[in-house]
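seq/struct pair 1
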Amino acid sequence: MYRNRLPQIDGPPGGRVFLTDSGLETVLIFLEGIDLPLFAAFVLLDTEEGTERLRRYFLRHTEIARAAGLGFVGESPTWRASPDWATQLAYDRAALDRLNRRAIELLAGLRADYERDAGAPFVISGCVGPRGDGYRPDALMTPDEAERYHAEQIGTFAATEADMVTAITMTHAGEAIGVVRAALAAGLPVSISFTVETDGRLPSGQSLADAMAEVDDATGGGPAYYMVNCAHPSHFDDVLAVDEPWVRRIRGIRANASRRSHAELDEAEELDDGDPEDLGRRHAELKEVLPRRNVLGGCCGTDYRHVEAIADAWLAA
């Protein structure tokens, strides 16, 4: 529906604000008690019961967005639904294709009602995750390797109602470049979301500014926009407080609830859900340094409370 004109960037004057979801995997594991092997939510799509759990999760978020009068970006539960992870989970390529398609069908089933009731766009995004660990750059790839690897999943999305691709928790520029190339070859607009450590740098050690510049230079400014996810705002707010053109390329933040480092979160046995109201305020404070930012959501440790607080604080500001 929106492949040729994403409403996040081609909306009315001033830009429309979009909400997205929270920390899907941590909600399912810690709040709903669901076992997700290898942190893979897409496996739930293999059963009607699991699909219904995911539908209820996304429905809760669309209700928050509808109440606030915002658009919605539905991010498919496919962060782990790529070949290497599927092989570890004993899914063959045919099954992987089927489940990626089913993920988009799930969101498409929610779109018509939302747009009718909310009077706002519902953008369907095919979520692509890193080939390796989302916290550590343990599978550094060249752009060519990354393009070949991610082309399969992105090709599936291109044959569905997906409006775009979003690469979440990218740890290094090489993989991001490959994702962008694969998405553009498939005819899909793409957003790149980098994760950063407590010092505001990517896990690879590269600065956010340099990583974005490398991707833009290698792809002719290919990404529709950039995001930052899987980090607390205190980890990167100072980095963004500069009046430079690259900052204006960032349209989305999906922050963690916790101030802990990735290493600390990896070792944690209990969920650190932080302070929803504080997280909302910190999102609102970023409004001054990110004038084009209009995609708001959460990541690890966040749930419906955090997303609602983010929406309320942003609108109040």
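seq/struct pair 2
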Amino acid sequence: MALSPRSSLSVEKEVKAQVLAARLREIVDDDLVEVARLLVSKPDREIFGETEFQLRDILLKAGAKALEEHLRQKKTATTGPV
């Protein structure tokens, strides 16, 4: 079994990962609520099929937000304050 990414990070990168994770929790909170609402709104017989596609779309949107935030943090770290 491969090492988890966490175990292979330096202390400095782990700190950065924790900061990013905290920010991502804020950014994707509305998306997670949307996921929860979608899931509780469906009867068991409708959890698969179309619901899976709706779920995927929400999570892809959250993933795009995560990428944008990661790149924003990297840009801020390399350019410094304006």
